[in-house]
TrEMBL record:
Residues 113-187 form the Urate oxidase N-terminal domain. It comes from Novosphingobium olei. This is Urate oxidase N-terminal domain-containing protein. InterPro entries: UCP032086, Urate_ox_N. Pfam families: Urate_ox_N.
Length: 190
């Protein structure tokens, strides 16, 4: 059992097979089509993205000052780069699948321009919040973290300047995640 559960890729594969089995088993009451697959992927990637956003803000960032200097390298050299890989691609794939859903369902333009009615406007607010958040991930947080983590060369001054920029963008995303999640859940389009 330890060997099975020690293999992340095998567990993900088994989970995928189990999800497909559930989809096929309940296809009469919940049809499997491009839309349902996009929704499922959107939720999965959203959990990866927002889960890591919350991990970073609730666990890693507040804990780092308490970690002895000689132990910080384990976090910055091994854990954080992996976290930021899944964090940024979770953001990108959440955004792509969400936009895909809006296109498949035919409300994308109306939502993004706030020209629809009711729930379409609400989902539009959620979409714009997610776009801003993904922008922050890719164009503010990640470039700053590459300097902070030593992935790209940076002077001590550049690293010091990058840290508050990354923190402000990350905390902005934390703040925006709350209304964004409300919009996404409450719009219930589909």
């Amino acid at each position: 059992m330890a060997k099975l559960f020690g293999n992340l890729h095998l567990i993900l594969g088994i989970g995928l097979v189990a999800a497909i089995a559930v989809m096929l088993g309940f296809a009469d009451s919940a049809p499997v089509d491009g839309n349902s697959i996009f929704r499922w992927l959107h939720v999965f990637f959203g959990i990866v993205w927002i889960g890591l956003l919350y991990y970073l803000n609730f666990v890693q960032v507040p804990t780092m000052p308490k970690i002895p200097a000689e132990q910080k390298g384990a976090i910055t050299g091994h854990i954080a780069p992996k976290v930021f890989f899944f964090f940024r691609y979770g953001a990108l794939l959440t955004l792509i699948t969400g936009l895909g859903i809006s296109i498949i369902d035919g409300y994308g333009h109306a939502a993004l321009t706030f020209s629809g009615e009711g729930n379409v406007k609400l989902i539009g607010v959620g979409m714009w919040l997610a776009i801003i958040m993904a922008f922050n991930v890719w164009f503010i947080i990640w470039p700053a973290q590459k300097k902070i983590l030593g992935i790209v060369e940076a002077t001590a001054e550049e690293k010091a300047a990058a840290a508050p920029r990354a923190l402000i963008a990350s905390r902005t995303n934390l703040l925006l995640s709350l209304p964004m999640l409300y919009c996404m859940v409450s719009a219930n389009l589909g």
